[in-house]
């Protein structure tokens, strides 16, 4: 009974939105008013674990089936995760998890652990473009596929591409952006990735589209780019800088600058935070090992050191909420197959990840920014937002 009392006492501080807690034969209400969601505990969570990391304790309880949500998982998380500022995190106890090595070898291992789960897995819930980043919903009824096409078109328009230009994509994923640039603008392009699954899929797609003379993809760390002595008219990076670690933000922008021609355009698309923090322990342990979300201000500060003149900054936060909810819906349709291919704990982990991220974007805990900049001054560009 003491353990149950301690758990309920800990949860009582999360009272911004009232909810019901079911614990064996007992029910408790947290907060005042009509409960907006219900949490059922099938097993107690020790108070020591909640204090060490509220995120890890609750996340692992959900993965193990010791914590269940009655009704919509997203609805519950949307109300609860707006109070993440009340979570407990013992950074000293979690030092290795929160501050891992940023060596090339370790970062390749971290990226591979997420992106090399298998192309078949991602194909189950991404759209046909295999875009694993925020979509752009120009219209309320846009499908996920249309939103990803919109996003790619929007980025390419911002880059002000002309026929024959060279385009580098740092962290190119499965290559849709470069393929579209080659087909629509007749550009030449190179993509780099640390995922062998993405590399193989992209190479197959280049051959399928007959773009061998225009495109190439390499298994390469961004830190190796200066060694190539290559120069590009445009550089783009979508959802990549979050993987490099806080110590390497300047190095990342240094490498982008070194391969970008003077006056060239640089577009950086990344998940961001209002202020600097080491990241969420559960996400770093199970989803994105080593991942750290930059603040907008530190990225802008870093880019100034490379003489990047910022033309525009745009926040697409709510577009990512919609994107993630689309992914979560697709995931749920294929959940049985995913649980069969992997196991139930894996299936619960990923549904928690997709829904919790949708909730954190919706609550403004994280943002999605696109920064457009030129290397040095470029007075040849239109003086209005041409895109």
Automatic annotation (TrEMBL):
InterPro entries from the xrefs? Answer: CFA/CMAS, CMAS, DUF7884, SAM-dependent_MTases_sf
List of catalytic residues = 357
Q: Where is the DUF7884 domain?
A: 9-88
**Which SUPFAM superfamilies does this chain map to?**
S-adenosyl-L-methionine-dependent methyltransferases
KW Nucleus (keyword) present = no
Molecular function GO labels: methyltransferase activity
Gene3D superfamilies this protein is in? Vaccinia Virus protein VP39
Q: Which Pfam families match?
A: CMAS (PF02353), DUF7884 (PF25371)
CDD domains documented for this protein: AdoMet_MTases
What keywords would UniProt list here?
Answer: Lipid metabolism, Methyltransferase, S-adenosyl-L-methionine, Transferase
A Gene Ontology biological process noted in the UniProt record is:
methylation
Cross-referenced PANTHER family? CYCLOPROPANE-FATTY-ACYL-PHOSPHOLIPID SYNTHASE (PTHR43667:SF1)
Q: Which family does it belong to?
A: Belongs to the CFA/CMAS family.
Know the name of this protein?
Class I SAM-dependent methyltransferase
Q: Which organism is it from?
A: Candidatus Enterocloster excrementipullorum
């Amino acid at each position: 009974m003491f353990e149950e009392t301690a758990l309920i006492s800990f949860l009582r501080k999360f009272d911004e939105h009232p909810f019901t807690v079911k614990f064996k034969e007992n029910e408790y209400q947290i907060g005042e008013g009509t409960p907006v969601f219900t949490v059922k505990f099938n097993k107690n969570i020790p108070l020591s674990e909640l204090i060490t990391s509220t995120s890890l304790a609750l996340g692992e309880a959900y993965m193990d089936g010791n914590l269940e949500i009655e009704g919509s998982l997203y609805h519950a998380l949307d109300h609860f995760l707006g109070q993440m500022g009340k979570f407990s995190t013992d950074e000293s106890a979690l030092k290795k998890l929160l501050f891992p090595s940023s060596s090339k070898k370790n970062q390749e291992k971290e990226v591979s652990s997420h992106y090399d789960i298998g192309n078949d897995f991602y194909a189950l819930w991404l759209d046909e473009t295999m875009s694993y980043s925020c979509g752009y919903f120009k219209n309320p009824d846009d499908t996920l596929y249309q939103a990803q096409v919109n996003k790619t078109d929007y980025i390419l328009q911002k880059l002000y591409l002309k026929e024959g230009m060279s385009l580098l994509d740092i962290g190119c994923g499965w290559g849709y952006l470069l393929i579209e640039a080659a087909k629509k603008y007749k550009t030449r392009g190179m993509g780099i990735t640390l995922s062998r699954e993405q590399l193989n899929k992209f190479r197959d797609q280049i051959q399928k589209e007959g773009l061998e003379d225009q495109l190439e993809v390499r298994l390469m760390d961004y830190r190796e780019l200066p060694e190539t002595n290559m120069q590009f008219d445009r550089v783009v990076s979508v959802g990549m800088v979050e993987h490099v670690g806080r110590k390497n933000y300047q190095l990342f922008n240094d490498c982008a600058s070194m391969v970008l021609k003077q006056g060239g355009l640089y577009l950086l698309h990344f998940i961001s935070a209002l202020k600097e923090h080491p990241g969420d322990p559960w996400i770093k342990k199970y989803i994105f090992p080593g991942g750290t979300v930059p603040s907008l201000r530190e990225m802008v500060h870093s880019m100034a050191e490379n003489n990047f003149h910022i033309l525009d900054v745009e926040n697409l936060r709510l577009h990512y909420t919609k994107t993630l909810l689309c992914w979560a819906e697709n995931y749920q349709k294929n959940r049985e197959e995913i649980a069969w291919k992997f196991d139930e704990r894996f299936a619960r982990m990923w549904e928690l990840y997709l829904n919790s991220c949708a909730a954190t974007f919706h609550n403004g805990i994280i943002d999605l920014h696109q920064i457009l900049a030129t290397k040095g001054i470029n007075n040849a560009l239109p003086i209005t937002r041409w895109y």
